[in-house]
Amino acid sequence: MRLNDDERAMLDGRDGAAAQAAMDLLVRYGDALGAERLVDTNNVCGTVGATMPFLRDYALKESGMDSVFSEFSLDTPNKLDIPKVKVFSTHLQQGLDPENAHLQGIDEQVVKVYRMGEEYKAKLGIQPMNTCAPYLTGNVPVLGEHCAWMESSAVIYINAVLGARTNAEGRESTGAAMLTGKIPYWGLHLEENRAGTHLIELDIEIKTVQDWGLLGYYVGEAVQDQIPVIDGLRGAANLAKLKHFGAAAASSGGVEMYHIVGQTPEARTREEALRGRKPVEVIRYGAAERRLAYERVNTTARESKVDFVMLGCPHYSIEQIWEVCELLEGRKVGANSALWIFTARATRQLADQAGYTERLKNAGAVLMTDTCSAIGRVMPKGARVVALDSAKQAHYLPAIMGVEAWFGTTAECVEAAVTGKWQGGLTA
Predict the structure, then answer these.
(1) Which residues form the Phosphomevalonate dehydratase large subunit-like domain (predicted)?
(2) Cα separation, 46 vs 200, whole angstroms
């Protein structure tokens, strides 16, 4: 891999041992990928905390967070002095909500380690957004901007909806990018790799968030890690719909980018989305495919008695929180059910100001931050059957937590929280 003078100087130790280790990691990573060079980035989203049990123990035994960063972000057994980050860096979701740890069954000692991690991030200059959707809380890259982001639902959103450029990075590459402002120039950073590969022609109208989740789930399975081009959309989708579509496609498959003809920035026309190439396959999506996606995403569900409803994967926007408040107006969560809604801490502050947090509390629901049931493995004790409006969460949570999962609309989930029963179903 070719390095410029600045990169070579970092590799030679000009900026200290931590930056040197970071550059060494990026060179090895880039060589393995076949990248010819690095590219500058000033927008990194990753994780450097110690919320998992193993990392918490490591942080305590090895004398601090510098040890965790050195070992698990820079791939070196030597404890290095980690400097402030070189570029704008954002922290993604973590393993618990420190304000609601008691409800999540988290021990106070674990919360102390969490707070230690928060202080550490602040010292390094990392923005503590603690969300899987940083674009909801101020990190909004622009068309053509080179980024280094983790989190599958965030990666696909900024690639497709915003037209920024990133591959699905990991803890190591994002940690190294924070200290160097560099990332290997390969994959979706290259124009020629952003062309659509599969054409998805819509035979039915895609209107609701549920519709978009089912479309994403079907498309992800169909194209795997390729780039679908959606054509035939009537009207425009909003943020919540595109958020759930991308999260579903990145879960059932490995989609990191998509195009919607006439809507996403690199797909003003079908020809532009495909970059003038012939699609590998043309796939029609109609009522039968929608039904199949619904059956697949609900494959674990058996029992109609619901004891836990989880909303907020990816993290809820303020609009979605408002919607739940409206659906709960004058109603209460059932005595044998729990309703947890997950969002970013900054969005929670806005919900506090708007009175939504109090409205949810009065209805028996809880607004939580920083994590979700899959990432944090946090659920009410004894929960066996879960209702979700996220195809992504319905895909992962049964495998992670051993529960049954119903996927449906937000209204159906709220109804389940109030009545304790699943009464949802796919409408024509």
Answers:
(1) 1-415
(2) 32
Indicate yes or no: pTM above 0.90: yes
Which run of H or E residues covers position 103? helix 101-104
Q: How far apart are CA 342 and CA 352, in angstroms?
A: 14
CATH topology (fold) of 5-189: Aconitase; domain 3 (3.30.499)
Written as one letter, the residue type at 414 is V
DSSP 190: S
How is the chain split into domains, by residue range? 5-189, 195-296, 301-419
Q: Which tokens go with 188?
A: 């979706």
pLDDT tens, residue by residue, 317-366: 999 999 999 999 999 999 999 999 999 999 999 999 999 999 999 999 99
Give the Cβ contact number of residue 330 at 10 Å: 5
One-letter amino acid at 343 equals T
Longest CA–CA span in the chain (Å) reads 65
Q: Out of 3.30.499.10, 2.40.50.140, 1.10.520.20, 2.60.40.10, which CATH number does the structure's domain 301-419 have?
A: 3.30.499.10
Burial (CB count <10 Å: 0-12, 13-18, 19+), residue 94: buried
Q: How far apart are the first and last CA of the chain?
A: 54
Whether omega for the bond prior to residue 134 falls within 30 degrees of 0, making it cis, is no
* Rounded distance between C-alpha atoms, residue 232 and residue 202, angstroms: 5
Tokens of 179: 């200290």
Q: Where do we find the tokens 């931590």?
A: 18
The DSSP code for 317 is P
Q: pLDDT: is 184 or 79 the higher one?
A: 184
The full length of the chain comes to 428
In one-letter notation, the amino acid at residue 162 is L
Q: What angle do CA 418, 376, 73 make, to 5 degrees?
A: 155
Helices (H), 298-424: 318-328, 345-354, 356-362, 373-376, 391-401, 410-419
List all residues 6 or more positions away from 53 whose beta carbon is below 8 Å from its beta carbon.
none
